[in-house]
Automatic annotation (TrEMBL):
It comes from Dictyobacter formicarum. Keywords: Membrane, Transmembrane, Transmembrane helix. This is DUF998 domain-containing protein. Coiled coil: none annotated. The chain crosses the membrane at residues 16-37, 57-78, 90-112, 132-157, 178-197, 209-232, 244-267, 303-325, 332-351, 357-376, 397-421, 441-459.
Amino acid sequence: MQQVTQKRELPERMSWARAMIFAIGFFLLSAILVGQIPGYVYNAMTASSLVEFERGAFSLGLICLACFAVIMVIEFLFDPKPVVPPAMLAGVGSIIAVVGLAVTAVVSLTGYQSFPSEKTNLLSVLGGKFLWFQANAIDLVAVGLVILFVGLATVFYSVLAMGEQRNPDRRDLGTTPVIRVGLIISSLLLIVFVYSYNYNPFPASIQPLVLNVILGVAVFLALGAFALRLHYLMRPVRKNVMSGLYAVGALGLAQTGALFIVLWLVAYPLLALLHPLPVLGPYLTNCTRATAIPTSCSFSQDAGYLIDAIISSSFFGALLAAIWAWKSNRNLVVVGSVVITAVIALTALVLHTSATALPTAMMLCAAILVLATVWSMTARREFAVVGEGNLGCLGQWLIMGTCLFVYLSAFAFFSMANFAAEETPPNIPNPINTAGSTDSFVMFALFAVLGAIQFFFLARNRYRV
């Protein structure tokens, strides 16, 4: 009896190097969404004062709504049937950028970086300085940075849209020289900052200014490289991803931003409402003085656990949905993932605008933007398989060793962030500006170099999954 064997359709195959970059990106995204953000909300809710929770909720809501606004600009400009002329949006974006720059400069130079101040007494309700808001509940630096970001993004994409009107090319140009130069310079500036931050090579009088300028340029270049790479990534499949991009903005970012703004508005009155309730009051609130309600109150640990569980499970469900949709809606998952990664990078910046926290916040922002850009480059199959090679013992070690070194170097890199008492203390000691050893920097430099060497040989050998 003759047996007829049907040739099955093989799934899409990729190199191990490309698969590893995808895995590293998803690991970072999962760790921040499921671990860091819920943990930050819990710490802010259960602190002795609600000021940090109000500032954080306001800044988170603001950056989510700002990114939704940028997505709507992209929809208006690059929809198959554009709605708004690019020149008009470029003019509007220029005005917004000037306003954002002015707000940031004025509040930074005058020192009036928060509202309301301790001396404000305007329409006081429930002991608040302005309505029911406590002192420093609104971060004006974050407001200026968000407005500046929306304006610059609007101008940037409007110029790209005007270019497309003159040249109807819709190809994905990959990693162009502009993107490469932006990534390389941004990465080199990050290296300069990390070294300077730990070993103080500049005079003490000018070092803070020099480091802030270095990081500002690094963030600007990394953000520009990411925005341009995202544009090229979506261009060939624009008809397929525009609806998904709108869903990420409207159903994800806009809803999340609105939720955090509502939390910012009602958090303080909610304490006054919940505290007198017979069962829920003692369970959800914690007040230190019975004569100062709600000024001496914060949310209890049980309330923090509840909100923590809701946020963690929501993000975990979204990550599972992305895994489920990978095969049928790959473009949506890739574009949505890199967009959310960029939003997280900007969130790290706007949540930490104090003088002590801003340098390392810009460091994290630039580093995550570089990762998001590399991730979007990988989505275009930069690591095309030329020849198939057996993985073997050497290949397995290269994969395991690279993952291990990347994890350890990233662990050390994030330990260098200096967010004072607001966050969990660093996992690896990093006593900067002292005579002590900078453990995080040494560990980061060592394992980053070892991981890069192993990844080079992994990519060179063209091992295929």
